[in-house]
Amino acid sequence: MSVHPHAGKPVRPEDRINIGQLVSDYFLQTPDVAITAQQVSFGTSGHRGTAGKISFNEHHIIAICQAVFEYRTEQGITGPLFLGKDTHALSEPAFASAISVLIANGVNVVIQNDALSGGGFTPTPVISRLIISHNKTFAADELIADGLIADGLIITPSHNPPTDGGIKYNPPHGGPAEGEITKQIEQRANELIKAALVDVKQVPYAQALQSPLLSKQNFIEHYVSQLNQVIDMQAIAKAGVTIGVDPLGGSGIDYWPVIAEKYGINIEVVNPVVDASFAFMPLDKDGKIRMDCSSPYAMSGLIAMKNDFDISVGNDPDFDRHGIVTKSGGLMNPNHYLAVAINYLMTHRDWSKNCKIGKTLVSSSLIDRVAKKINRPLSEVPVGFKWFVDGLADSSYAFGGEESAGASFIARDGSTWTTDKDGFIMALLAAEILAVTGKDPHQHYLELVKELGEPCYGRVEAVASFEQKKVLTALSSSDVTVDTLAGEKITKILSHAPGNNAAIGGIKVTTDNGWFAARPSGTEEIYKIYAESFIDEQHLQTIISEAQTIVSVAFKAAGL
């Protein structure tokens, strides 16, 4: 994809969204689930859409919340449901819709204590931590058998553009719901919409707010007070590391000042603006407003300040992703930082030697080389953080990370921290690395690649029809008729991930010095090719070109 001429530049008047129209569409537009694009559809991170295209409207939210209630009833879950929202324009009305349905169904809903006064935004990792802490306490009190376990909902479309809304469900393990759960919720929600919502219970919002079932809690204090369990906050404070933070207008904006005060850390929030239009954002690569903390265009403001701080960090609106900026190298490639973080944690934490390193199959093979170097077991799983949940929950995984700048890891004592991606701890870890070693993460990356080889990584997208996406999902080794890739002998052709034997939903082809993976998008009419070379950029482009040919041949063989 070519770079838009306005990428990295300020938002223009024509780029701004009409929030009033968007919210009106949320309440007034009615989806027709006979149309695929208007159905409830859970991708790797919940249901997302936009009100104007009738893919994220009140009908979707109340149907999803009713379906979640029915699921938790079926599972005997009667404890509190922690409900959070981010700063997108559609999150506020969806938050209200969710409360009105959940309260009507007798659910004990817990929200941030200022969530009803125009703020009270809650990051994804905070919901995960609340669920885990609650359920750990109740398990210790032997009340878990009474069904008083907690779960949660987060209203967020992550880093998506300002027009989008999203909602995701975290069951009692605290992480993203598994496919069988989201499929059940998705199917039931669509049934409810098709039946004109006759089986949905809902009370007026004003009435729901007066219900004793709705309670408030200081989520910020709960989360921040425990951060030293997972990050060496004292080391950061003692070393005097200065941290510049750009929350990109996201849900963690009120957390950073509390972190700074509690632990005596020099943190400056360089952009304190919360604006549902996100008009303060530099435009992304494609000229759209997108709060992607791994994008050098979206992060251009913070990158320009890199010499003002020892470490600079950014997060997406629900704070499950991280962007790391160093003085020595600017914005780090997410794969590069994952490799550095893993190498540091595994050599600076007193964790069991049997704890696995979890990576998605489209993450850099530099992680494989790091794991081999430090002699730690590696588990490669399909795309989606949900594949790390069980391992993080029982601490058999020390770390789980994906190429899209999302990761989490266990606490310093080896216990579970979060089972969802945590942008706070990945950001603070960069400061800890500098404080403890005297070198920033980019400097550590240069040392790693000097020893292990430097990767060239790329990703391309192409339009794909529904039928083409089905073909790509079903690809297997027999569909690859060549035995070399970019001049090297093919060593593996994978349709299932080696870490858990789960279907990739596509294919991965590897050689000694390179690989590619092709898989369809779960939410868009496109397919993606990820590729990497440990030789050079030209070799990478050859891999990508040959990968595109392999996919095209498969489409042609299917008559598409």
How would you describe this protein?
It is a single chain. With 560 residues, the protein is α/β, with parallel strands linked by helices. It is built from 17 helices and 23 strands. The protein has helices at residues 19-28, 58-74, 91-104, 124-140, 179-194, 205-209, 219-224, 233-239, 255-263, 300-303, 334-348, 366-374, 389-393, 423-437, 441-452, 466-473, 537-557, and strands spanning 42-43, 46-50, 81-85, 109-112, 151-155, 164-170, 214-217, 242-246, 266-269, 311-315, 322-326, 330-331, 356-360, 378-381, 397-402, 406-409, 456-463, 484-485, 488-489, 492-496, 503-510, 514-520, 526-533. The protein has a seven-stranded mixed β-sheet with strand order 1-2-6-5-3-4-7, sandwiched between helices. It is globular, with a radius of gyration of 23 Å. 53% of the residues are buried. The mean pLDDT is 95.
Beta-strand fraction estimate:
15-25%
Number of helices: 17
Rg, please?
A: 23 Å
- Look at the structure and name the CATH superfamily of the largest domain: Alpha-D-Glucose-1,6-Bisphosphate, subunit A, domain 3
Fraction of residues in helix: 25-40%
